[in-house]
Amino acid sequence: MSRELTPEVLMSKAVRACASARVLLDLDDVDGACNRAYYAMFDAARAALLTSGVLAQPHLMKTHSGLMSAFGLHLIKNGPLSRDLGRLLKRAEEIRLVADYTGDSVELDDARELVR
Description:
By secondary structure, the chain is mostly helical. It has one domain: Four Helix Bundle (Hemerythrin (Met), subunit A) (Up-down Bundle).
């Protein structure tokens, strides 16, 4: 069953992912916490783009890189969001890739930063 992607639906997903990230971090599941923190940010970015009207272009929703590019171009480059926020989203993506796809360890401080 598929529901329409609205900013409200996406923010609800983001809030749930953030809550999951906190629980996983409390359980010392650093990799899981990083994954959920990234997806909280990712879904919030999708909601922001949808609100701005950018995601009326469906091809931007098909890949993480497409969404990241659109977020940077339309909401970070000339505002209204800060460059620091764009850098944090990119860092979250990089850390999630380490957590999900490599045997390398994510530092606890990095996980705490993403969850915060």
